[in-house]
Design goal:
It is built from eleven helices and 25 strands. By secondary structure, it is of the alpha/beta class.
Length: 436
């Protein structure tokens, strides 16, 4: 094994510049190792606030930080904008689309993508929310829907434009539904002449018995109550069976299928592991779970491959409690720091205890002054939970200027109830009104 006395520094390759990869890189920034961070994008994205970009509350640049700028202070670290397409574990090499790179230790933190449960054709009709492009596409569809409704004279067709359906009642779905309701009832209320945006119908469909399934039942009930106060229609025990252009089919419980016309359908129902999980399974023999996540050892390595680590959403860590750790940012951050610490301990000939997640609690926001907080023995909702959510999210933004921009933008939005990033960009820049 390499030691600090080696002439060639131990080379740590990190695939993915999300929370796990970035926190690992920063934790190794002062260590006597060489670090290479590989990502297809040149920026770190603060995904928990993507829904605010999707609903016009923030601009993409407010929640994104260039990787080179974030890591520029660490002289042992370089950033490569590239795509990893394969792995040679026996040769300790990652294969790029345009080359290859050797490593001594490999950290894989490529996260997850949308999961349509075998209906990939739904992706174009019901976009999910994982990337900047997803957020701006959803923003385009939302605001185009109001524009199209403004021009539509047929009441039924107008209502189809003013119907917004979110599939999935987890944190992302709840946040999207609440933000959409506030947009319709407050932000846009004086902006149109032919329609009243408050007539928008917002439906949140959840397959399980309650929204926010990972949270305690009492907090799920508080969240649903807050959504109802925002005039969001919450339908639980509801499964989507088909999505077509302008129409969704679903079934409530054991009932008959129902159809509803809606031009804006948003997906927040499931996630699947990135393609690199399958590559790791093919090249190392590691087991995957049903979602394609990699089954990792207690120290986040792969069985039989102690120099390969998988962290964040891509990892299934089932060594603490009776279920895998949740796919949240805090897990990825702590795992990134742990792996960086473990690599340094190994190089010094030392050992480190298995990874143990310290749960700081969970927060989910519903809307203005409304959120729920699960802090273990302390569970509450309302304004205090909302205020805590605001400051925690600002604290964890990567760069100082992002924190200042978001704090100022939120303060202004709170006072004026306006959202200043309501841009319609991308294809189809005009309302899609059917010809008559």
């Amino acid at each position: 094994m390499d030691s600090y006395k080696d002439t060639q520094p131990h080379h740590v390759v990190i695939i993915g510049g999300g929370f796990g990869g970035l926190y690992a890189a920063k934790a190794l920034g002062r260590a006597p190792v060489q670090v290479t961070v590989i990502d297809k994008r040149n920026f770190h994205l603060f995904q928990p606030l993507l829904y605010q970009v999707a609903t016009g509350g923030l601009s993409p640049g407010d929640i994104a930080s260039p990787l080179r700028a974030v890591l520029s202070r660490y002289k042992n670290t370089r950033v490569l904008i590239a795509e990893v397409i394969d792995l040679k574990s026996d040769e300790r090499k990652v294969i790029l689309r345009d080359g290859e790179l050797s490593y001594d230790s490999l950290i894989v933190a490529t996260g997850v993508s949308h999961h349509y449960f075998g209906h990939e054709e739904w992706a174009q009709r019901a976009p999910g929310l994982k990337t900047v492009e997803d957020a701006t596409e959803i923003r385009r569809r939302i605001f185009l829907a109001f524009e199209a409704a403004e021009r539509e004279t047929d009441p039924e067709k107008r209502q189809a434009w003013l119907t917004f359906i979110i599939v999935g009642g987890g944190p992302t779905g709840v946040e999207l539904a609440g933000a959409l309701a506030e947009l319709a009832h407050n932000t846009l209320k004086n902006d149109f002449r032919s329609i009243d945006p408050a007539e928008a119908k917002i439906l949140l469909l959840e397959g399980l018995e309650r929204v926010l399934p990972p949270y305690p039942p009492e907090l799920s009930a508080k969240a649903e109550q807050s959504l109802v106060q925002l005039e969001v229609t919450v339908q639980t025990k509801t499964l989507v069976t088909d999505i077509q252009d302008g129409c969704i089919t679903f079934r409530r419980g054991e009932g008959q299928p129902e159809q509803l016309r809606a031009h804006t359908i948003l997906w927040a129902a499931g996630m699947k592991a990135s393609a690199l999980g399958q590559i790791l399974a093919d090249r190392t023999g590691v087991a995957l779970d049903r979602a394609g996540r990699v089954m990792v050892e207690p120290d986040l390595t792969l069985a039989g491959h102690p120099n390969i680590f998988v962290i964040g959403d891509l990892a299934n860590y089932s060594h603490q409690g009776d279920k895998p750790l949740p796919g949240v940012a805090q897990v990825a951050m702590q795992q990134g720091k742990y792996v960086a610490d473990l690599i340094q301990h190994r190089l010094q000939g030392k050992t480190l205890a298995p990874f143990h997640y310290r749960d700081p609690g969970s927060l989910a926001v519903i809307g203005r002054n409304a959120a729920v907080a699960d802090l273990g023995s302390l569970k509450f909702g309302g304004f205090l939970a909302w205020l805590m959510w605001v400051f925690i999210h600002i604290f964890y933004l990567i760069e100082f200027d992002n924190r200042v921009l978001v704090l100022f933008q939120w303060a202004w939005n709170y006072i004026t109830r306006k959202r200043g990033a309501r841009l319609i960009t991308g294809p189809d820049p005009f309302p899609l009104v059917e010809s008559r």
